[in-house]
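User
Take a look at the entry that follows and flag anything odd:
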Amino acid sequence: MSPIAEISGQIIKIGDLVLHKATQQMRHWLDEGFPGDMSIAVNISMAQFRDAALLEKIDRALADSELPPWALELELTESVAMENPEKVGEIVSSLRSRGVKLSIDDFGTGYSSLSYLKKLQVHKLKIDRSFIQAISAGSSDQTIVRAIIGIARDLDMQTIAEGIETEEQRQILEALGCDSGQGYLFCKPLPAAEFLPRLLEHSVS
């Protein structure tokens, strides 16, 4: 989200609106035939994590949209996770008990502390696109990505590679054991109305 929203103090209101809209949209997609094993991901800012009402707002968004918790995934950055690891750990534990999925976004660009990963027990690590852009055979980026995938596997977490743009990148990541990926190779951002038909067409083909 824009730093202007952080500075102006509007980031919590914007985040609440995004959460509400995302859960409503996901409920609509499920009703229209969205594959039942998929979830919608929503970024949570540091300001939102400082909000004492965060868990209540998530519960309300799920209840208002009648969205099952497993269909919602919240993405945290490493800076959010490390600002107050103990407090964040408590919130993550509460969200896991609800069935909400969690992931660390842009992993590898922040603190990358292995101790906080063990404590947080999130579901997924999203490997930052900066490592994917130069992941050619034998590169140092490939070594780092391999290490991240190995750590995630040992901690029973899944991995998602961000910013995949070429078939070579996809093949290398698949060979390294990365669970999934996102990027322009698969599809550019789409309006909500166009997304589900494209997804269903791809799943059929």
